[in-house]
Design brief:
1008 residues, alpha+beta, 29% strand, globular, binds zinc ion
Length: 1008
Amino acid sequence: MHHDDALTEARIVRFMRERLTPALLRRSAPLDVTAWEVPGEPVPFETAVAAEHRPFAVGDAWGRPWGTTWFHVTGTVPTGWDEPGTRIELLIDLGFSIAQPGFQAEGLVYDPSGRIVKALEPLNMHVPVQVGAGGVVDVWVEAASNPDVAGVWDFAPTPLGDPATAGTDPIYRLNRVDVVQLDVTVWELLQDCWTLDGLRRELGPELPRRAELLRGLGRAVQEVDPDDVAGTAQLGRDVLAPLLAAPASASAHRIVAVGHAHIDSAWLWPVRETIRKCARTFSNVLDLMDHDPDFVFACSSAQQFAWMRDHYPELFERIRSRVAEGRFVPVGGMWVESDTNLPGGEAMARQFVAGKRFFLEEFGLDLTEVWLPDSFGYSAAMPQIVAAAGATDFLTQKVSWNETNRFPHHTFLWEGIDGTRVFTHFPPADTYNSALAATDLHRAQRQFQEKGESNVSLLPFGHGDGGGGPTREMLAAAVRTRSLEGSPTVEIGTPSAFFAAARADYPSPPVWSGELYLEFHRGTYTSQARTKRGNRRSEHLLREAELWAATAAIRTGAEYPYDALDEAWHTVLLQQFHDILPGSSIAWVHQVAEANYQAVAERLTALVDESLRALTAPGDGGPAGFANASPFVVDGVPALGVAATTTAGRAVLSGRADGGFVLDNDLVRVTVDADGRVTSVLDLAADREVVAPGAATAELQLFRDTPNQWDAWDVDLADRTHWTVLDRADVVEVALETPGRVAVLVRRSFGSSSVTQTIALDAGRPTVDILTAVDWHERQKLLKLAFPLDVRADVASSEIQFGHVDRPTAVNTSWDAARFETAAHRWVHVGEPGYGLAVANDSTYGHDVTRTTREDGGTTTLVRKSLLRAPRFPDPTADQGEHVLRSTLTVGAGILDAAAEGYRINLPLRPVQGAAVDPIVVVDRPGIVVEAVKLAEDRSGDLVVRLYEATGGRSAGRVSFGFPVRSVRRTDLLEREHGEQPRLAPDGSVELRLRPFEILTLRAARMQ
Ligand SMILES: [Zn+2]
């Protein structure tokens, strides 16, 4: 046989593009348009329709960046269009480019009563139309002129991410506003061709099926008359019907396709736009549900549902009824799809508490799946938190973005630091934005690592990131691939249906233990330092506010500020979204986030002050003391109590002949030379020099920071070889000299920036305090604070939620090599048997810890904290300006000393007037740490205490309550009775035995 495959292929492609696509619309007729540009921020429908609209011509420019224009579209459907095999719709092209949906203009269509009809997006421009009497068409379009911030993804600095710099000229041109008559047969034929041609391209040239598809498509092209596509389209479909009817092979990979829209709660758009994005996407989804009874849609993030309830109540009620039918499926159980590297322990727990509470209260649903396709790596604390929230299944996709190593499993048990295992799936198609194209289906089949043991995977489909969601074309593809020879099989399903199938298919999956480290986006531990500081500060203020409000409620009967706390938590949880806290959003998002953190701080500080005033009754003129919200004793003030400090000892400072200084508090002796370098830190108790020979500690190092791509997200290993040490001081002088504290101030300037470091010692504490105030005006630089320590550490223990993770310091494997920048919360601990050191911080997360053997045979463990970056995309002004960052170095420290120091510097003692306050919760073993003290979510007045085992070993101890207790129950994170119950001793205490890193929630009912 003579082969003409290439010619046939070209013919099929051109046929689809130039014959079928233009023939989709039998007829179209223009409609009349008037427009009104909203002068400021978005307005409600009622305001828009009452505004004065001016005539507007198709082809005219509209929409300044971030603006809103309302279009009123009216006209009549010409007579005679009501033909069989056709559908009358509107087609509105706002001026969409070929950029992906969700990254440019979008519209929301309303009927004249204000009811939402559907959205307008690129690749989804049709509107189902209710034709009134006499063929009248009348709709309103709320068009958002969102700029395409990413452009061609060259990561070039752009002014578009801030309305103050984005410009005011219109950026779109209204392309088309028509009523159209869609030819349903031609549309179906186009979907047939798309699916079969896509399948053909995935099959090997040796396969008969591939040749059969090519010949069949070629014949279909021949059957359709280019002069009468509408009249002959059915003949083409008849040729393809047997090809579509050939069933899948028995061993075909099975794909459960889950419709969703990964709507980033803020990113290259602000939160206020995300609220509208949700309305648009969900209205698309509801429209699809009206037309396709098999379609189900999974939606994560309680926050996004809450926005609909609060801003679009009519739409929310429609969602609610689809939820009741089981077709609009809430998934994930978290408040938002948060980052998991950076949120603190209690905040991570609250993502689930707030999320699951919402789904229980609004829909009566107790969700069991966790849905985090896009977060930048997954903390090893997550399995236990997930399980403690009552969830059983976990989904992620992001580890497919690893630069170096290929993750070995797609379905596995993920084991956390405490041993908890959670069933986890990682969709092998490597995308959460699939259109169900054959390329995605076959990639899933090809890459699925569990082949031979399991044969089912999940594929999330629908336009995502900026929203849009599934389309009718995607559903058409799903129908055609349900059972199709040569293709994986596709069934539309829910996440829970998938997990049930996957568990049944694979009863003994492999285990991955520890964090799911993402070998990518390592700059997100550091970018946008002010946002990170706001998060850290908010988390600790929330702890303080809850602790003192609960103490005041129990001791004085003060009212507990449930609503104010809920509101503050919701803000903090929202801003832990995986593009806000990681620092990867536009300038606008971070400006709003920082203002929100400021408001949260003011509100919570007022609550703390109010509670402490109620508790200490300062009017009685009692002595002054300090409130200690830390779970450890600080300067003699009991954990969770108020008392005077009892610190003894002294701190002294002396000058050196070279112009430097020596600081000494009888525990540590610190030498600062004339250049402001900390050349010695002597642990006097251990008689041990801590600084590596010849090195200086607390040293500022300035690195080149020029990632290949994803500027705010990435730091590249290549830049680790280009750095300078800021080792010349402008000024070294005494900053403070009192019996309780001595400090030396070191001022340096570099580039366009300056930095003032304060090196201080407090009496009675084996800790060097380093305050770094930076006026930062660098571009594409990374500032690190380095601690070269004379200790041979095998691992760096980094604080994560409810414990710590040990990461090797040696670089043996490609996995070790790729882990060159890591996240830690408040502290990193390094040590060798018998001796350890802790480096703690009050607002930063990025670290790197490496180890070298010196010429003298000793080992230097180098702990470096990443203080500041200055990426230029997507926020060209990221991190510019003033920052104050606190770090400490504690000598002779064990893990619990590190933990105590981490709490101490994030929860400074708060000076108060009035009487002392005994703690309402006392734990008699330091290994059992109190993470939260609050009143119960159900507002019953019960006290809830969250504790965890902090050493990584077993801890036994007694918890007693500073008030009469009726009962103490162990609960899950949602404060529902769960697990083995403790026995209440006659004195109202309970004895606990915790396994390594175990989280435990207790609920204590008060004696009435
Ligand atoms: Zn995302």
